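Dear H.,

Thanks for agreeing to be a second pair of eyes. The structure we're designing against is below in token form, covering all 364 positions.
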């Protein structure tokens, strides 16, 4: 039991029996008892205070026993304590109340025991109820913590899958440039790769970044690809206010950009154009990525190729973070080009939010 819980118990225990003693005293006065009857009320409250501590210790000792054993132990303890309580009350009432007369029959003495048993059952019910409620709350908190930890582990796994995937593609491109004796471009790509990986590794996978920061990471990646494709790669990025200050999962757009480059640019001699449009629609952040490529059946979340890994990763990250409160769709209108649409709750960054409009428009 924690220090806070122990303190709360003693405060509640003292308040309950103090209130009981006061109520007993005024009830006695109402029944015509003398003013000195307070001594009996104090004794009654002190007996209850001490004897319920005995019950408490018994309950704590047997709390983790099988239910049947706990019931037998608790029932026996209640009866034993009630017998002691009733006996002490019978003795005290004749020594502290000279006007009180003994019961005319054994039923009167039985009433002392019955009253004590009723009081002990009421106290035990309250104690057990509070303890069970606290235990249930702790179990809920433990379950929530376990779920959060599982989600964090899953997010780490999904997030860290991006770096090897991207790194393989970039190193393969650098190798190609070296084989083609394009060493200056290869050196430039190594420098851009270093900057991108520094950003990627410095960010905690569970933390979110602003969309402006995410766009900055995308630009670093595109700077690498620009060295490969030159004028064949054309990009347009439009972020309307206040979408730039929205908090988004780090590198959530990275697999989408990689796939667009792969299917819309690298496979065509004339290259292609990639566009990113982000806006706030009500309480949702709406992001659309489209290209003018040929459209491909391979560009699907569950395909066996590289595209499937990245898109399935993005879909799963959104599911873990937002549950049913997100959208992720891919379509290829008229089999010309591909459009990927993401939507999830708009969360404004407390440190990045501003009233200034930031519109990003790049032409490559």
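And this is the sequence the design step returned. I haven't edited it by hand at all.
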């Amino acid at each position: 039991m924690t220090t806070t819980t122990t303190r709360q118990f003693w405060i509640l225990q003292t308040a309950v029996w103090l209130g009981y003693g006061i109520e007993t005293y005024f009830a006695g006065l109402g029944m015509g008892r003398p003013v000195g009857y307070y001594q009996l009320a104090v004794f009654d409250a002190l007996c209850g205070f001490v004897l319920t501590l005995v019950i408490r210790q018994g309950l704590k000792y047997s709390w983790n026993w099988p239910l049947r054993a706990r019931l037998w132990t608790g029932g026996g303890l209640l009866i034993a304590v009630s017998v002691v309580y009733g006996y002490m009350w019978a003795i005290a009432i004749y020594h502290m109340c000279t006007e009180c007369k003994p019961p005319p029959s054994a039923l009167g003495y039985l009433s002392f025991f019955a009253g004590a048993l009723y009081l002990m059952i009421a106290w035990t019910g309250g104690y057990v109820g509070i303890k069970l409620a606290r235990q249930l709350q702790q179990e809920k908190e433990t379950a929530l913590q376990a779920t959060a930890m599982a989600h964090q582990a899953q997010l780490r796994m999904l997030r860290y899958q991006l770096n090897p995937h991207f790194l393989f593609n970039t190193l393969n491109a650098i190798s190609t440039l070296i084989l083609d004796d394009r060493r200056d471009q290869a050196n430039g790509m190594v420098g851009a790769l270093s900057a991108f990986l520094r950003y990627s590794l410095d960010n905690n996978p569970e933390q979110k970044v602003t969309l402006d920061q995410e766009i900055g990471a995308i630009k670093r990646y595109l700077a690498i690809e620009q060295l490969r494709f030159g004028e064949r790669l054309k990009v347009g990025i439009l972020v309307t206010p206040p979408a730039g200050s929205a908090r988004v999962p780090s590198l959530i757009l990275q697999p989408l950009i990689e796939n667009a480059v792969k299917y819309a640019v690298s496979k065509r001699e004339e290259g292609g154009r990639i566009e990113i449009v982000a806006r706030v629609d009500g309480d949702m952040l709406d992001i659309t990525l489209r290209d003018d490529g040929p459209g491909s059946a391979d560009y699907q979340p569950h395909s066996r190729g590289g595209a499937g890994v990245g898109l399935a990763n993005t879909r799963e990250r959104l599911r873990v973070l937002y549950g049913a409160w997100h959208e992720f769709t891919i379509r290829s209108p008229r089999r010309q080009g591909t459009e990927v649409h993401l939507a999830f709750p708009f969360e404004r960054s407390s440190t990045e939010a501003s009233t200034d409009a930031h519109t990003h428009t790049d032409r490559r």
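Two observations from my side: The radius of gyration is 37 Å. The CA atoms of residues 129 and 135 lie 10 Å apart.

Warmly,
E.
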